[in-house]
Amino acid sequence: MKKEKPNNEYFFQEGCFILELLNTPEDPDVSIARVRVKSGVTTRLHRLHGITERYLIFEGTGKIYIGDSSPRDISNSDNILIPESSPQKITNTGSSDLIFLAICTPRFVPEVYEDIDD
User: Fold this and answer.
1) How many angstroms separate the CA atoms of 114 and 71, rounded?
2) Number of domains in the chain
3) How far is CA 24 from the centre of its chain?
4) Which of 16, 43, 81, 106 has the fewest CB neighbours in a 10 Å radius?
5) What is the mean pLDDT of the chain?
6) How confident is residue 118, by pLDDT bands cut at 50, 70 and 90?
C-alpha cells in the first residue's frame, strides 16, 4: 500500500479536499479517499450514479444530508452508508476540519458525479 502524500491532496468541485488513497482501474470494485471539509463549509448537493458510499468519520463534527431523510449530526467514529444515486451533502459544523474516509463501491470515477445543487 502506498503512503499518503498530503501534497497530492486536491480541491474537488463539490467543495472539499480529496486525497486518493486507493483508486485504480486494476481494482475496480472499490476506491478509498480521505476527504477534508473546512470549518463552516457545506459541500454541494450531489449524487454518485451507481456507486454506494460509506463515510468513516475521523475528526470533527458535522451534519449529513442523505436523500429525503432528516439531517443527522455526525462526529468522530461515526459510520454513514449512502445508497447509490442518493442526493447528499455534508456540513462541517465544528471549528476545525471535518476529516473522513469515503469508501466507494464500485470505485469512484468522475463521470458518475452529478451536481444537483440549485
Assistant:
1) 20
2) 1
3) 18
4) 81
5) 95
6) confident
User: Is residue 7 situated within a structural domain?
Assistant: no
Residue at 51 is within a domain: yes
Domain that holds residue 41: 17-115
Model's pTM, two decimal places? 0.91
- Cβ 45 vs Cβ 89: under 8 Å: yes
Give yes or no for a contact between 60 and 76, defined as CB atoms under 8 angstroms apart: yes
pLDDT in tens, 38-88: 999 999 999 999 999 999 999 999 999 999 999 999 999 999 999 999 999
CATH number where 87 lies: 2.60.120.10
Establish if 3 belongs to a structural domain.
no
**C-alpha cell at position 9:** 491532496
DSSP string, 19-62: EEEE--TTSTT-EEEEEEE-TT-BPPPEEETT-EEEEEEEE-EE
Residue 79 domain-assigned (yes or no): yes
Count of helices and strands (H, E) across the chain: 0, 11
